[in-house]
Design brief:
It is a single chain. The protein is mainly alpha-helical and about 70 residues long. The chain has a domain at about 1-40. Helices cover about 20% and strands about 0% of the residues. The longest helix has 10 residues, at about 20-30. It is elongated and about 45 Å long. The termini are far apart.
Length: about 70
């Protein structure tokens, strides 16, 4: 059985959660002319699994999106 995040070492605990500033990423891309001014309409979440069977497991306990 896997340990909960609270039982892990501080360095391992950092891998248990995180945030992404989507606006900052999109601004960075726009500033480099990867695309023009656009309106963000949807945010999707998922995993892209590229390893073979028997690899690490992935679990999401919560997911949220906020705007300001």
């Amino acid at each position: 059985m896997k340990k909960p995040c609270s039982a892990l070492s501080p360095s391992a605990r950092r891998r248990c959660s995180g945030t992404v500033d989507i606006k900052a990423v999109l601004t960075w891309l726009r500033d480099r002319n990867w695309f023009g001014d656009v309106t963000l309409g949807d945010v999707q979440f998922g995993y892209e699994i590229t390893s073979s069977s028997g690899g690490p497991g992935f679990r999401t306990n919560s997911f949220s999106v906020s705007a300001s």
